[in-house]
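sanity check this:
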Amino acid sequence: MLRQIWLLTKLEMHNFWGINVWLHTADKKAKRKGILMALAYVFVAVVIAIYVCGLCYSMVTMEATKVIPAYLITITTVLTLVFSVLKAGGTLFRKQGYEMLSAMPIGNTAVVCSRFLRLYLESLIFTALVMVSGLVMYGYYGTPGFRALFVGSLSIFIIPLVPVAISAGVGMLITGISSRMKHKAWVEAGLVILLVGGFMLVPSFLVGEEEIPPEILKSYGDVVLVILGKVYPPAVLLGDAIVEGSIGKLLLALAGTLAFFGVVIGIVAVSFHRICAFLFSTTAKHDYQKERLHKTSLIKALVIRESRRYFASGVYVTNTIMGPVMAVILSISFFFLDMGEMMGDVSAGMNMRAAIPFMLGATFAIMPITAVSISMEGKEAWILKSLPLGRKEILDGKILFQLCLMAPFYVAAVIISSMALRLDVLEVFGMVAIPVILILFSSVFGIAINLWLPKMQWDSEVAVVKQSASAMIGGLVPAFISGICALAVMAIPQAYTWIGYVVIGLVLVTVTGVLYNRNVRE
């Protein structure tokens, strides 16, 4: 069976990120596209590494260097869990090749193991990027010994096991529950949103300042360790193993995670064929009745078409709806946070309160639908090309659907935030205008990136929504730009904040207009 697992895993990774096509294609255009995609991945990796280094340096300045390993392990685990849940079901129960595999003398366990290993290897890349960056900072400022860094390097291979196993189990449940429902995408998206919301809210109930001994409160690092121990105990165990250079604790963590990983694989293997049968079998009712036909405008018809394509895919919905949901959750959290104590009007010469509209706008700007809407056409792109439509009409339909989807979340987030923060007139102006401008910018920027780096040949929607270069760049760059704008406006004296809003808003609107004109050019 080991040979079967090896061969199936090799097939799973055969064209990971399109590398196999790039290596063997004779098309020079495809070669150039592959190079551009590689540069895009490098850019995303550099942004993540810079962010991790900045996070570690902030821990150093607060004299909590010893907490860095456990802190990074927890963050990596949570992010891996959240993003793996969004794609685990589609990867484990993928339709492509199922009939061929079913006809071969290959057991469920081999197939499931190979797909688990694919999820593990994909998560391992992100884990290695975060942990290597963090360990470099920890090695420089914490001055650990060689043994500690050696244990830290080995822990990289252990960290993804638990989140991948949990995400696969949850993905199996979500896929199994929604498999035979009429509105599968809605149910799947709702379950994922509830799950991710739970990841965010549960720690706040588990951790309370009153449960932390007073003597520990004097040390920020000890407080963080207590909190991490309540949220994710394995992170503290692995963190202690790295700090102490303990091989014994490392082996203990490895044994526990492998046991958990193996149990989940066994459960999924037992249910594999049953869930696939529910997913891939179809029934047809021959009770179609012609109803009244309606005539509508061209742009409305294109928006309706986009909405039907969008809500037909659970992966598409869950990966793009989390930003707006996070914006509403963030606005609600303002009611429960002491903003005067946490941020203040002016703190250390920085106008922290002025950054709130950009924080809200960044959540809307993460992963816009337009960043993958062209690629999602896939093999059906010829249908749009065959219609008597111009490029402008098609792209306008995609952008307008993005704006229509964001509208209710935007209105709710702005109203709730304004009430929670008790904003004055100028602050309300920023809260209303800045998120709108960032939503427009991210929508047009997403189209521009997807036109530049389309991925029209794909076997699974996961490959487009989660693994394509346009999804990464279009999903991260607008949020990154929002962060830069937030830093810029924080440095402006409080009396001139509105000038910062106006200047930054005009710059973003101008860039958006230039990109839009370039996008719609035939």
Notes: Residues 333 and 420 are 9 Å apart (CA to CA).
